[in-house]
Amino acid sequence: MKPIIVMATLVAGAALSSTANSKDLNKTGSNPQRQTSSGEVYTAINETLSDSLQRLKEGAESGNTDAQWQYGVALIRGYAGRTPNKPEGARWIRLAASAGNPIAQTALGHLYLIGEGVPLDYQEAHTWTSRAALQGHVPAQTRLASMFRDGIGTETNRAEQLKWLEEAARQGDSESQYLAAMQLLLGDGVQKDIRKAIHWLNLATTQGNANAQATLASLYFKGAEVPANRGEALRLAELSAAQNNAMGMQTLAIILLTDKDKEPDIDRAKSLLRRSAILLREDPEALIDKVMRITGHRQ
């Protein structure tokens, strides 16, 4: 069932329609006919949203767990121009979660995590998130990893953090692949495992994860954990920088400034460093000066 998606699309359409009508009125002055037309559009949209919500409610009442959690979300958010009813929305989500729906379990865990429609309760958040994670739901697995990292609803456990990151990573989640790689690469609360870290970085890089591309580029450039490969470092840094990744841009700048086979591209390197600094909210000139000095270029 996808009525929520339909409703969200219609809401976005209504907002765009409102903007367009406002611009038209500004151009031509007050136009009663246009105002009436706009009112008719809103009426039609609200009727469609109400119909979708009613169908969703009927599905929820019939025991469809997907309809139950979606109806619960609709009530919490206040779709179809209705006043949000967070406790009632949470009740429907709980029904679906109790029946074993992993998306509903993840949603209920989130509600407990932020205290929306239910009392703030980190242990309950951990319990429901764990149930969804055990069913293989990737968003629950990544959230559970964060909860073990930060000790939310449980004791801090970095080994469990890695376990759940790798569970999500095996299902192809590129951010989990990157995060697992970094934990293994740094030995952050777990035993260092460079081989496995590179494995996860390669998988994340293949999927276009900009952080993974930048990290692997840096490793190939330094030639410490992996054999040095300047060509591969340059390729990966270019890919990462093309996605406006700050670390990727800095790595690419350093590679360009240390090219011994041709004249260093100082102008491009400075441009990359400037963009990186802006993204990181750092002083561009200070970063440029620092990198120029460590690469042997005097300002």
From TrEMBL:
Statement: the UniProt record of this protein carries the keyword Signal: yes
Keywords noted in UniProt: Signal
One Pfam family of this chain: Sel1
Classification via InterPro entries: Sel1-like, Sel1_AlgK, TPR-like_helical_dom_sf
Protein name per its UniProtKB record: Sel1 repeat family protein
Domain of life: Bacteria
Signal peptide: 1-22
Residues covered by region (Disordered): 21-41
